[in-house]
Structures are given as structure tokens and as C-alpha cells.
Amino acid sequence: RGPEMMLTWSPFSDALLELWMYPERLEALLDEAQAIAEARIAEIYS
């Protein structure tokens, strides 16, 4: 069993593989997270 087997046991392996294959999904998630953060900041300081 090589170190590469560890990744298959990881609960995050599917998500990591998906982000590796489709990096634009990560960009979309980051954009959404930033929009949510900016909205909360606007609420706090409004």
C-alpha cells in the first residue's frame, strides 16, 4: 500500500478530485463566499 492509497480513504478525496478536475467550481464557491462575507460586513457596518 503506497501513500497514494491514503487519499482514497479520505472523506475529502471525492471533493478534492472534483475540484482538481473542475477548478472553475472552486472559483464559483470562492465568489459566493466573498459575496456572503461582503453582505454580512455591510449589515454590521450599515
How are the SSEs ordered, and which strands pair?
Elements: H1 4-9, H2 13-21, H3 23-45
Can you give me a brief rundown of this structure?
The protein has 46 residues and is mainly alpha-helical.
Structure description:
This protein is mostly helical and 46 residues long. The chain has one domain. The chain is built from three helices and no strands. The chain has helices at 4-9, 13-21, 23-45. Helix 2 packs across helix 3 (23-45). It is elongated, with a radius of gyration of 17 Å. The N and C termini lie far apart (56 Å). The mean pLDDT is 81.
Question: Kindly, what is the distance between the CA atoms of the first and last residues, rounded to a whole number of angstroms?
Answer: 56 Å
| Secondary structural class | mainly alpha
Low-confidence spans = none
- Please summarize the sheet with the most strands: none
Helix content: over 70%
- State the helix count: 3
Return Rg in Å. 17 Å
Mean pLDDT: 81
Shape call: elongated
Number of domains: 1
Beta fraction: under 5%
| Overall strand count | 0
Q: List the helices and strands in order.
A: HHH
